[in-house]
Amino acid sequence: MNSIYQLRRDIIGVCKRIYARGYVASNDGNVSVRISEDRVLTTPTGMSKGFLTEEQLILCDMEGNKVSGELRPSSEVKMHIMVYREREDINAVVHAHPVTATGFAVAGIPLAQCVLPEVVITLGEIPIAEYGTPSTEEIPNSIRKYIQDYDAFLLENHGALTIGPDVVNAYHKMETLEHFAQITLVARQLGKVNVLSDENVQRLMEVREQLGVKGRNPMVCRLCTENCPNRASGGDQSTETTPTAQAVLPGTDEQLVKSITERVMATLKS
User: Fold this and answer.
1) Residue 165: which of 15, 4, 2, 12 has the closest Cα?
2) Which one of 52, 102, 165, 269 is separated from 21 by 20 to 30 angstroms, measured CA to CA?
3) Of 37, 54, 55, 76, which is the active-site residue?
4) Residue 111 contacts by C-beta under 8 Å, 6 or more apart in sequence?
């Protein structure tokens, strides 16, 4: 593992990135790194992630008690510690409120469809952990039942959580999660989401193995099977997301021209 000095720099670097990308606002979010079996380096509570310095980070024990530092540790440190206790392979946790992913969490829609090859390979499904009151044991308890199978989570009516062997890896998973959420939202707005077939998902899992991608990835597609009723083993399928998808998205150039002409004429007459 890197020296504690490098780990401090890495945490601050990630904090500045999640702030610059709009994944957090004001004093939202928290980042931590496990530096030993019984010590965790974490961001303090009540501080903007965009303006943190290395000296303001807090060293805690595995009970969440402050060992060193002038400020108080993040109020969500219980969630981080639960992850470290449950997963020996995890050494970093990033919690943020990226807008689109959090929108899915608020809407109660898991990012569970097999749509993008990169996401299938790296993260697989992204479940929603049930709502829990921030700063209490409710959130760690809601995540616990998913923690052995996933590396990225939506937190119902709250935000998102990603974990990894180091803080940069955990941050990259947060980027992937939010990017996936943005693309999924656009596809749903356009009226159709093309879902990868079982055969294509299996081939991607073979690619994942060949590349030696680490982390948990439950691509048995439990959620995907439930949430993709049009999915079939014979080929990629599409899921209509609005009852007016055909009217909104004409299938041919002729239909498109006709649709646009009708809308323009209606506007001119009004």
Assistant:
1) 2
2) 165
3) 76
4) 101, 104, 119, 125, 126, 154, 177, 180, 181, 184
DSSP designation for 237: E
* Domains, the chain, ordered by start: 4-195 (3.40.225.10)
**Whether 153 contacts 215, CB under 8 Å:** no
Look at residues 171, 185, 183, 161 and name the one whose alpha carbon lies nearest to residue 107.
Answer: 185
Question: Where are the strands (E) in 196-242, listed by range?
Answer: 237-240
Alpha carbon 121 to its chain centroid, in Å, reads 14
> Quick one: tokens of 211?
């590349």
Q: Residue 91 is encoded by which pair of tokens?
A: 């050494």
Assigned token pair, 248:
């909104």
Q: What is the pLDDT along the chain (270 residues), one digit of tens a residue?
A: 679 999 999 999 999 999 999 999 999 999 999 999 999 999 999 999 999 999 999 999 999 999 999 999 998 999 999 999 999 999 999 999 999 999 999 999 999 999 999 999 999 999 999 999 988 999 999 999 999 999 999 999 999 999 999 999 999 999 999 999 999 999 999 999 999 999 999 999 999 999 999 888 876 444 455 555 434 444 566 666 654 333 333 444 455 445 544 554 554 454
Annotation marks residue 76 as catalytic: yes
